[in-house]
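Weekly structure sync, notes
Attendees: PL (lead), two postdocs, one rotation student
Agenda item 3: pending single-chain targets
PL asked that the sequence for the first pending target be pasted directly into the notes so everyone works from the same version. It is reproduced below exactly as submitted, 513 residues in total.
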Amino acid sequence: MTDAQLYTIIALCVYAGTLALIGCISSGKTKTLDGFLIGGRNIGAWVTAFAYGTTYFSAVVFVGYAGQHGWNIGLGAIWIGIGNAVLGCLLSWILFANRTRKMTKKLQAKTMSEYFEKRYNSTGMKIMAAIIIFVFLVPYSAAVYKGLGSLFSAVFPGVETWVWMLIIACLTAIYLVIGGYVATVYSDLVQGIVMLVGVVCLVAAVLSHENVGGLGGLIENLGKVVESDGTSLGEQLTSIFGGSSFSFLCFNIMLTSFGTWGLPQMIGKFYAIKDTAAIKRGTVISTIFCAVIGCGAYLIGSTSRLILENQLPAGGVDSIIPELLLKVLGGGTAGLILLAVIMILLLSASMSTLSSVVLTSASAVAVDLIPTIRKKQMKPESQMLLTRLLCLAFVACSFIFATQNIPIIVSLMSFSWGVVSGCFIGPYIWGLFSKKITKIGAYAGMIAGFLTVGGATLVITLTDSFKAAAAHSPEMGVAAMAISLIVVPVVSALTKNKDKERVDEIFSCYSEE
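Predicted structure, written out during the meeting:
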C-alpha cells in the first residue's frame, strides 16, 4: 500500500464515521414525514446555505466540466463559476427563496410534485412531475457514481471501480435512511467545510506549481501553449471571454445557472428554511460559498494544460483532473495528506448531491406517485417507511445502472438537467408570482419544455447520432427553459382561470407574515 492510499483510507474512515454519527443524531428529528423530508421547516441559515451550495456542485463539476472546459476554453471557463454564483445562487435566493417558503408552507407541500398539485389543483400534473423526477434523476445519480468510482480508481489502481461505487452507495444510504433531510443538510455543512478548505488548498497548490508560476505566470505561460502541429492556443486559452468558444460558454453559463431555478433538489432547500431572517443570511453565505467553489474549480481546470504539459491523458477529458491531482500532490507527506483531503472533497461534493437527488426521487414516488395511483391516503408511518425503503431502492438502482457500463447513462446525464428544469421552471416560477396562471398554462409549459429537448434529441439522433445530440445538450436545455417560461403565461392568457377564490387564498400567504 502506498502512502497516498493509506492517507486516503484514513481520511475516508474518519469521514464515514462522521456521517454515520450525524445520521444517528438526526434520527430523533425524523419521527414524522414532514421532519424526514423537510426537517420540520426549521432549518437555519448556515445549514441551508451550505446544503444549497453542496447540492449545486458535485464531483462532476470538478472531474468533468472543470477539467474539460478548463482544457478547451482556458481562463474564460471561470465565467461559468461566476455565473453559477451570481445567477444560479444569488439571484435564485433573492427571487424565489422567501416566496417558495411561504407558498409551500401555505399549501403544506413537501415536494415539487405536491406543489404543482396544490397550486394548480391537478392530480395529473403531480403524477407527471413525479415520473419526470424519477426517470431523469436515476441516470444523473448513476453518472455521479461512475465519476467518483473512476476518480478513486486512479489512486487505487488495483481496486475495481464498482467497489468504490458500492462504498459510496452504502455511505449515502446509511446516513440518509437513518436521518432523512436533517442528516442530509447537517452532513452538507460538514461536507461544505471540507470542500472550502480543499478548494482553497488545491488552488494554492496548482498556482504554486513550477509549470504555472502563480496568477501572473498562469496567464503568461498559457499564452505560450501550442499544439503538436505548431498551432498557437495562447489567444484562446487566455481570452477572458472564451475566444472561439464564446457561444458555447454562454450556453453553459445559462444552463448551469438558470437550470437551478427549476431543479427540485435545489428548490427543496427553500421549503425547509425557518424564516425570512435566515433567508437573508443564507443568501450571502450561499453566494460566497458558490463563488469560492465554482471559480476555484474552473481556475484549477484552466491550469491543466500547463501542469500536464499539454498532453491529454489516455482516459480523455474525464481523466484531466485526476491526473492533475496526482501530479501536483503526489510527492511529499504534506502533498499526500492534501491529496487525501481533496479526495474527500470530491466525495463530499458528490454525496451531498446524491443524497438530495435520492431524497427528491424517493419522495416523488412514495409521497406523490403511489398514494395518487392507489387513490387512497397512506398512514404517515407507512409513508415514511416507504420513503426510507425507496431511498434504498433508488441508491441500489443508480448503483446497478452505473455498473452496467452503458454509454447512454453518461450522455443522458447531459440531458437530465435541461429536461427536468425545462419542464418545471415555467410552472414553478410563474406559479409563485402570478394569480393569472392557469392549470392548462402550467401543463403546456411542462410539456413544451419536455418536447423541446426530446424533439431536438430525436431529430439530431436520426439525422446524425446520439453523440451529436449530446454535444448540443446545453443549447437544448436553455431553449427548453426559455420556451417553458414563455408558453406558461401565453397559454394562461388564452385560457380561463376557474378557481379564482382558491388562488386568492393561496396568495394570501405573502401578506400573513
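Discussion points:
- The mean pLDDT is 82.
- The first helix runs from residue 3 to 26.
Action: rotation student to compare against the earlier draft before next sync.
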